[in-house]
């Protein structure tokens, strides 16, 4: 499909899925079922990860929830998930994965595949950290921390899970990005840079995996009241403490503005929008899932960038050797 003004079945079905998500359960709206699907989710100690793990399990999925520092299952957040799963009789298992550790990623994915009885149906890359403050105040240590989690962590997880998906000729990778993967705001340059990277790697993967029957969907949340920014405050404070006096003085007003803007973390929006959108995408038939799914009450800017870039990508890939892969992803 070289004419980017045409609307393909992915866009149509993806839009229907989003409407279903907004209304409630994907199952209740006739978008198919996630029941029985095996799904591994990273970053399940809080926020979108925890909510997605519980939501998908309640919809009947076989959920493997992961988090770092599991402490032999004694971590408070892990015990809470286990107790809820037992109370509601959910298929929800826990594995320890620190996405910054090659060894833990490899071992955790192997364990998840064992629990699933083979290759995973779905991988949800969600684990991430926040970091606010001017770019010049972020030293190499802070930069390495956020890229190692938000971008390299996604890559580690995909590399570990994809061989079994490719072998089965099926699977779905859901990468949780952000509106800040498409637009930038002063004060969150490093966070945006990691999410811009997630967008680029995810779309490239979508094309490259098309011949193997494995799909990629990029979920793009806006601001939601989750723990990521409160948890990220310690990374921001540590970077600020390491900064020299001249830089701290020069950027004092910028730091105060960033702390005010991102301290509230999304206002009154409902974080359950994201789990519902992920469930709706999962419930769509293979071959019809959208490449991108903005999720927010105000996603106009994200949708505008997505449309503009889709047009550009169609110009670049719509003809030539990559045209079949492009068509498989967008049509």
Can you describe this structure?
The structure is a single chain. The protein has a seven-stranded parallel β-sheet, sandwiched between helices. 53% of the residues lie in helices and 11% in strands. Mean pLDDT is 90; it is low at 1-30. Helix 2 (47-58) packs across helix 11. The chain is globular and about 55 Å long. With 331 residues, the chain is of the alpha/beta class. The protein has 13 helices and seven strands. Helix 2 (47-58) links the parallel strand 1 and strand 2 (62-67).
Write the layout of secondary structure elements.
Layout lengths: L8 H15 L14 E4 L5 H12 L3 E6 L8 H13 L3 E5 L5 H15 L5 E4 L14 H11 L1 H17 L2 E6 L12 H21 L4 E8 L6 H15 L2 H6 L1 H12 L9 H11 L8 E4 L4 H18 L5 H8 L1
Parallel strand pairs: 1-2, 1-4, 2-3, 4-5, 5-6, 6-7
Biggest sheet descriptor: 7 strands, parallel
Query: How many angstroms does the end-to-end distance come to?
Result: 7 Å
Give the ordered list of helices and strands.
HEHEHEHEHHEHEHHHHEHH
Round the mean pLDDT to the nearest integer and report it: 90
What gyration radius follows from the Cα positions, in whole Å? 20 Å
User: Strand fraction band?
Assistant: 5-15%
Number of helices: 13
Number of strands: 7
What would the principal axes of the Cα set say about the shape? Answer: globular
Secondary-structure-based class equals alpha/beta
Main-sheet strand order equals 3-2-1-4-5-6-7
- Which residue ranges are poorly predicted, with pLDDT under 50 across at least 5 consecutive positions? 1-30
Helix content: 40-55%
